[in-house]
Here is the input.
Amino acid sequence: MTLRRFEATDAPWLVAQHKALYARDEGFDDSFGDLVAQILDDFTADHDPDREHGWIAVENGQRLGSIFCVSLDETTAKLRLFLLVPEARGKGLGKRLLETCKGFAREAGYTKMVLWTHESHRAACALYAATGWTLIDSKPAHSFGVDVIEQHWEIAL
Here is the structure.
């Protein structure tokens, strides 16, 4: 299994995976896919490769997941688009992606990393907690056509 740099040609796959998996598992409507597409469009058009990076996990030519580090401000990086296809879960790939992203952020000079997720993503939240992240905020919201509990996490780098 390898981690390679995100390429613009990965965007349609990544949008489709987010749309399909989050619709199936969370009941999210198409607005979630629209958000993912916008994040990827913005990243592709205007990211700073010294401070922002996206990775795609690949095995035997098949994409298995992704993770992105983007700049929130001079000292804070934001983790985005952390995704594993179901058949890749439970094999340590999520931890590898997370550690790679955090390591990049640290080397790029960030002192803190943040992320936004939903309480229903129990496996990811357990991984965040197990790797030193702190839950800083949790609140009910209505997003992507459903009621959710939004969470904000952070970690010092």
Q: What stands out?
A: The chain has one domain: 2-156. DSSP finds four helices and seven strands in the chain. The CA atoms of residues 64 and 86 lie 9 Å apart.
